[in-house]
Amino acid sequence: MDGPDGSGGEAESAARARRLAAWHGAERTLARGPAEERIAERLAALTTALTTARTADTAPYGGDGWVDIYGDGVVEELEQRVAGLLGMEAAAFFPTGTMAQQVALRCWAGRTGSPVVALHPLSHLEMHERDAYLTVSGLRAVRPTSEPRPPTPEEIRGLDEPFGTLALELPLRDAGFVLPEWDELVAAVAAARERDAVVHFDGARLWECTAYFGRELPEIAALADSVYVSFYKSLGGLSGAALAGPETLVAEARAWRHRYGGQLFQQWPVALAALDGLDRELPRLPSYVAHARVVAEALRTTFTAAGVGWSRVHPGVPHTHQFQVWLPYPAAVLDEAGVQLAEETRTVLFRRWREPGPAGLAMTELTVASSALEWTADDVTAAAGAFLARVRELMEAREATGIRGLTEVQGLTEVRGLTERDG
Questions:
Q1: DSSP state, 172?
Q2: DSSP string, 21-81
Q3: How many domains does the chain have?
Q4: Quick check: 281 and 123 in contact, CB under 8 A?
Q5: 141: which strand partners?
Q6: Domain span at residue 311?
Q7: Same domain, yes or no: 209 and 313
Q8: Which of 88, 292, 325, 419 has the smallest CB count inside 10 Å?
Q9: pTM of whole model > 0.85?
Q10: Greatest Cα pair distance in the chain
């Protein structure tokens, strides 16, 4: 919270600038975050992608076409591409996933005659959309389970009141990017059908689910009546999403998109970045998923060997290329340790930590992407060992000085240096 002079806000701004500078300067990292690029670098990368596409003559978006006006041209091309990849009749581009989700649920509520949506309390709809389905669309939720896992067919079948739509997030991000087994997913969908409900997939990260399910995207999407996908969460796009489904549903969704303020004048930069992501990142995602399992095992082995109690890698074997890591230290100390090592060694293993669970435990979400493929298990072990050593140094300094707050923890850089000199 800011102090009377606004110093809190200034301190956090300075801390953010320091983090970004450290991450940006890193030579080794498991993934490059979307906020770590400077504007000129992002523009240069997109220009390179356009030049490559034009040279290869494999993509009509190579830069010779006209910019879009209210969603025609390259945006239409992106919509057709997504519909084809998912095996759906049609798709509509949306500026945000939240808008796509709300429009989908609103359309289905009108078609089923039921404002009730069955969803998980850890779903994006509940955790990250500020109750939009309730406050904007007047819908109501029922929850098959509160367990941190996808709902079972029995739980869906056993809901004690009717519902019109079952919304399933694949993977369930806030439970640890977890997925059901394929047979369980098929059965869950069947259970919803038995209850005369339609099925909507929150597939923001559906792109990377194929390896775990052992199925291609069209077979996965075919289970649902509608699917939302994101262009920036795994594909490295600028922003944007798409809602795919039957032609009649998508036509109605376009009308609601306009009413919700999503009919933007021009969206060609976002569409181009999304098309580039589909060409560049989508084919690589299975390799990221496979390597995430190598990284997770190396971390778990390192934590165990170091005697770190209450450490956890979740899921033990990642379902996608993202997973959770839990450690028994304050988030501020873990953040500071990561930034210090990035500044000193140009290596980034972890980024931001938070404390969403039991007291004394902090959690971070780890993403394994293209830059991680050059990391061996030994590389991960060495980086994790260095990280734990720095955390323990900071904890000792913290306990010796009684430091607790964020600004004071950031000051442990100087405290640590003094301790080393005095020792």
A1: B
A2: HHHHT-SEES---TTSS-HHHHHHHHHHHHHHHHHHT--TTSS-SPPPSTT-THHHHHHHH
A3: 2
A4: no
A5: 117
A6: 9-37+284-422
A7: no
A8: 419
A9: yes
A10: 73
